[in-house]
Structure formats: structure tokens, C-alpha cells
Design goal:
The chain has 156 residues and is mainly α. Helix content is 57%, strand content 4%. The chain has a domain at 22-107. The protein contains 4 helices and 2 strands.
Length: 156
């Protein structure tokens, strides 16, 4: 009976020792990294930085398991790596938008361009279609009263 109690105590102690350790900060960092990876706009734009953030989170998890006393520093480093990954992905979005706008601007043909005092008219295929006003599209404007006095009568 005594050996059974000792065996049971050893089994309970082993179960407690092998239970995975976790930290709310570590869980939050993992969730934030997963969210960044699944983001349709940012997900694949900074793969190297995301791998570095993942490795930093793993290092923090290993520090938690080992109990080496470096958990706080490794959590801070993992959080910083995650912020860097997000910033790099956002920077790539901005760079892509700038590149697109630059290409559009380079392809744009000005409607009129003044060259040495002469206005260059674009070719017919680049001119906008003329719009003729209709009675319905032109609002009726009541006559405006002026602040000027009426002209004096003429003596003819």
C-alpha cells in the first residue's frame, strides 16, 4: 500500500512538471502574430520580419519552460520584433501605392499644356466628349439685384 502511494505521488509530480507552462503575454503575442499572418493586406508583405518575430516568441516560450529568468526580456524582444514586422508590412503597402500612383502620373496626358506661349491641344482621341446642356440640367437662376443705383435718365 505504501509503494502504491509513493508511485501515485511520483505520477502526480511528473504530471505537474510536464504540464505546459504558459503566460498571458506570450499567448497575446502569439495571437497577434497569427492575426498579422492571416491579414489579407499585410500577411505576406514582411515574411522575414514575421519569421524573426516567430523565433523571438519561441525563444520566450523556451525561457518560460526553462525558468531561466530571462522571460521578461525575451517577451519584450518578441513584442518589438512583432511591431517591426507590422511596420515593415505597412511600409510595403505605402511603397506599392506610391509606385502605382507614380505609374499613373507618368501615363497621364495633360489636357492642355502651355509651351512657349502656345497652348497645345491634345489629339481628338484624348479629348473629353463635349457635353451640351439641356433645359433640365441648367437650373433657373432668378435675376440678381445689384447694389448700384439705376443710371440717370438720358437727355436726348
Amino acid at each position: 500500500m505504501r509503494s502504491f502511494a509513493a508511485l501515485l505521488a511520483c505520477l502526480l509530480l511528473a504530471a505537474c512538471a510536464s504540464a505546459p507552462k504558459t503566460s498571458p503575454e506570450l499567448d497575446a503575442l502569439r495571437a497577434e502574430l497569427d492575426q498579422l499572418e492571416k491579414d489579407p493586406q499585410l500577411g505576406g508583405l514582411a515574411p522575414v520580419a514575421m519569421v524573426e518575430a516567430d523565433r523571438a516568441i519561441d525563444a520566450a516560450a523556451n525561457s518560460l519552460t526553462a525558468g531561466d529568468g530571462e522571460l521578461e526580456q525575451k517577451l519584450y524582444l518578441a513584442g518589438s520584433r512583432l511591431k517591426i514586422a507590422r511596420a515593415q508590412a505597412q511600409r510595403r503597402i505605402v511603397e506599392n501605392r506610391i509606385r502605382t500612383l507614380t505609374q499613373v502620373q507618368e501615363r497621364a496626358v495633360p489636357v492642355s499644356q502651355e509651351v512657349e506661349g502656345v497652348i497645345a491641344i491634345p489629339p481628338p482621341e484624348l479629348r473629353p466628349e463635349p457635353v451640351t446642356p439641356t433645359a433640365e440640367s441648367v437650373p433657373a437662376v432668378p435675376p440678381q439685384k445689384t447694389a448700384l443705383p439705376p443710371p440717370p435718365p438720358s437727355a436726348e
